[in-house]
Structure formats: structure tokens, C-alpha cells
Write a structure and sequence with these properties.
Elements: H1 8-12, E1 17-18, H2 23-29, H3 42-46, H4 48-61, E2 65-67, H5 75-79, H6 85-102, E3 110-115, H7 118-122, H8 136-152, E4 157-163, H9 166-175, E5 183-187, E6 189-190, E7 193-194, H10 200-205, E8 213-219, H11 223-237, E9 241-244, E10 248-251, E11 256-259, H12 264-273, E12 276-279, H13 287-297
Parallel strand pairs: 1-12, 2-3, 3-4, 4-5, 5-8, 8-9, 9-12
Antiparallel strand pairs: 6-7, 10-11
Length: about 300
């Protein structure tokens, strides 16, 4: 289960790298029940083989970055299910080990340890709103233990993802200071603003001078919002951009997904031209979609 020999940041300087897609939709397609509030994180304890199989499905589709099943894995969330801090630390480590195991034997596959937002732990859709009523310091104290545990497991990069507002972004950037790993910072957005309503230029600027940040961008957002955001992220930071949209839009009132047909090939080539270097999918983007992304990016 060795790590790749080339740092991800060095590869991004050469050209785009294909991310995986949504872990939850692939696990559901494999027959897993994700109705629990721990979502995919529950399977770290109950069905780790299913997580490894999902990672393998994306590798077969052409992904070269695997994102761990730790998005909703927190000390607080597992404590509510009777798990001790020691057990939670072991599960966080397992999330990295499962991705690394799935990549065994394949050259240059990177593992991104997912650090989801505070709202994911609440399991009430707060990650699509932000503004939790907590200070930056309180959010930093929430995130740091999990970040430290994931970093100790040896991923190649930390994915600070689905961040809804600049307060949480600031807290996360503080929490990774000195952790010794590269990170990417990815907001969830609506139109030209974060979910909490801040202008994207202001949001991306927070990461512009942070040395740990190797990419900045957007995820878990409507595909039509990705292109303009990629251009802003690259212009503001000069860093490689990460882009992985949803394959539909979440209707918070009806609590269901509205699928959005995507011309994946046309979209990703435009994103690449504007500075995107880590490109894949988020919710409702599966292995077949990632295969199309990989095919599109294989050609100039």
C-alpha cells in the first residue's frame, strides 16, 4: 500500500488529473443503505469492503485521485453512536487505508483524505447554508482533531471540501497549519457566491498565500456554475483549480435530486482551459461519468 512516488502538486504542473466521483451514489448502486445520519462513514465500521469496492470502480473508470469515506466521519458523530475517541481515530485511519488498498498495484494513484464541513456532522443540510453561529476559533477546534488523525494516516493530500462560507474556510486553513500535508480548498457555491452569499473572489483570496494549498476551487455545486468559478479561482490565486460538480441539483424542500444532463466532454475541456487541473465529480456522478471525463481530458 505504498504512496505514489511523485507529489500530486508536481503532477498538476504538467496537466490535469482525473478525480473520482460521488462515493455515496456508487455505494448505493452496490446495494448499501445510506439512510443513517453517519451516511457513508457508517460503512467504515460496518462494511469496509464496500468502500474499497467503490474506490476500485472509480479506478477502473480512469480516476487517479481517490477521496476517502471520511466526509461525514467526526469524533462527535461517532460519539453519538457510542464510539470512543480511540475507535474513531481507527476508523479515520481505516478510511485512508481502504483507498490505498484499492489502488494497490496501480502506478501514481493519490489518496485525498476528505475533510467535510461542520454542517455535514449535523446531517441537516447545513453544509448548503453555512453560517452555523460558531466563531472561526470554535470551528477550528472542531476540525483540528480529525485533521490531525487523518494526516497521521498518511494520505497524499487533504481535501477541505464542500465548504459553504469564508468563516469555515478560514478555520480549516488555520487547522491545517503545520500539519505537513498539501491540501485543496473547495467551496460549494450557488451562482457567483458561496452558499452563505460571499463573493467568490473574496472566498478564494483566503487561500492565495497559504503555502499548504496546492489547489482551490468548487465542488458539490451545479455544473453550470463551475466554469465561471474556475476562472475566478485561477485569476485570484494563480493556483491550479479543483472542479467536481454534482450530477444534478438537490431540492431541499422536496428532499430529492433533480438530475441535470451534462455534456461532460464539452464542460471539462473548458474548465481545463481556464485553469482546472483536478477534475471529477461529486454527488450523482458515477464511474461511467468519470470514464467520460477521463476520455475528454486524454486529448488536448
Amino acid at each position: 500500500m505504498a504512496a505514489p512516488t511523485t507529489p500530486l502538486a508536481a503532477v498538476l504542473a504538467e496537466g490535469p488529473v482525473v478525480l473520482d466521483g460521488g462515493l455515496s451514489n456508487q455505494l448505493q448502486d452496490q446495494g448499501c443503505d445510506l439512510s443513517d445520519e453517519l451516511w457513508t462513514a457508517r460503512l467504515l465500521a460496518d462494511a469496509p469492503g464496500q468502500i474499497e469496492a467503490a474506490h476500485a470502480a472509480y479506478l477502473r473508470a480512469g480516476a487517479r485521485v481517490l477521496t476517502t469515506a471520511s466526509y461525514q466521519a467526526t469524533y462527535q458523530g461517532f460519539a453519538q453512536r457510542g464510539r470512543s475517541e480511540r475507535e474513531t481515530s481507527q476508523l479515520l485511519r481505516r478510511s485512508v487505508e481502504l483507498a490505498r488498498r484499492a489502488a494497490r498495484g496501480l502506478p501514481e494513484v493519490w489518496v485525498a483524505a476528505s475533510v467535510g464541513p461542520y454542517g455535514a456532522m449535523l446531517a441537516d443540510g447545513s453544509e448548503y447554508r453555512g453560517r452555523y453561529g460558531l466563531s472561526v476559533g470554535e470551528l477550528e477546534r472542531f476540525h483540528r482533531p480529525r485533521i490531525d488523525a487523518l494526516a497521521a494516516a498518511g494520505p497524499d493530500v487533504l481535501a477541505l471540501e464542500t465548504v459553504p462560507d469564508t468563516d469555515e474556510a478560514e478555520a480549516l486553513l488555520r487547522a491545517v497549519d503545520g500539519v505537513g500535508l498539501p491540501v485543496w480548498l473547495s467551496y460549494t457555491i450557488s451562482g457567483g457566491r458561496t452558499r452563505a452569499g460571499q463573493p467568490l473572489a473574496e472566498a478564494f483570496a483566503l487561500a492565495a498565500t497559504v503555502p499548504e494549498v496546492i489547489a482551490v476551487g468548487v465542488n458539490c455545486s451545479a455544473a453550470q456554475d463551475i466554469g465561471p468559478a474556475v476562472a475566478v479561482a485561477h485569476a485570484v490565486t494563480g493556483k491550479p483549480v479543483v472542479a467536481y460538480p454534482n450530477g444534478g441539483e438537490w431540492d431541499a424542500v422536496a428532499r430529492t435530486w433533480r438530475d441535470t444532463p451534462l455534456d461532460v466532454a464539452a464542460l471539462v475541456r473548458g474548465w481545463r482551459s481556464d485553469g482546472a487541473r483536478l477534475i471529477g465529480g461529486c454527488c450523482r456522478v458515477g464511474p461511467r461519468d468519470i470514464a467520460r471525463v477521463a476520455a475528454a481530458l486524454a486529448h488536448p
